[in-house]
Amino acid sequence: MLWYVLKVQTNRERTIREALLKKIKLEGLEEFFGDIVIPSEKVVDTRGGSPKEQDRKLFPGYIMIQMILNDDTWYLVRDTGGVGDFAGAAGKPLPMEQHEVDRMLGRAEQQVGAAPKVKIQFSVGDVVKIREGTFENFEGAVEGIDEHNGKVSVLIEIFGRSTPVELDHWQIESV
Q: What's the average model confidence in pLDDT over 82-106?
């Protein structure tokens, strides 16, 4: 079985995956299909004060599907609501190279074992206000972001000099 990439409607990946699984079972074509994967990673979002772990899609609008391509399987997939087309050359779906599959699935699986990333809603250059800690009420510009550790580097001015300060993401707010 080879892996293919499907272009699907963004933010409907899960419902389209479920619809595909249902149709495959209904048509009795299970032997022609393998996994249907939505590559994603775990992130921690702290909007609203409390941390929540969420799945973030690595490739919004795309689903990976393992299948044996023939007329029946091609039609079943294309006839599913929300599916745009197979990624690849016009008219003929191109299977993914094995190293691409390994890289994409490996990246998603690697995220499962690792600690979730922290979703930080600031960008480099944003002006922020420090709301807690030694430099409370100071304003500065975001200089760097470390999603893995949930840290933000902010440049603040102390005695006329720009000084970098490393803070937790929850210690700052937008101005």
A: 83
Q: How far apart are CA 82 and CA 78, in angstroms?
A: 9
Cβ neighbours around 68 below 10 Å, total: 13
Q: Does the domain at residues 127-174 carry the CATH identifier 3.40.50.12780? A: no
Q: Which two tokens stand for residue 12?
A: 């409907």
CATH annotation of 2-118: 3.30.70.940
Coil/strand/helix, residue 144: strand
pTM: 0.62
pLDDT at 58 over 90: no
DSSP-assigned states of every residue in 36-64: EE--EEEEEE-TTSS-EEEEEESSTTEEE
User: ∠ CA(165), CA(167), CA(170), 5° rounding?
Assistant: 150
Report d(CA 63, CA 61) in Å as an integer. 7
Q: Which two tokens stand for residue 168?
A: 């937790």
Domain boundaries, the chain: 2-118, 127-174
| pLDDT at residue 87 in the model | 85
Q: How many residues can be counted in the chain?
A: 175
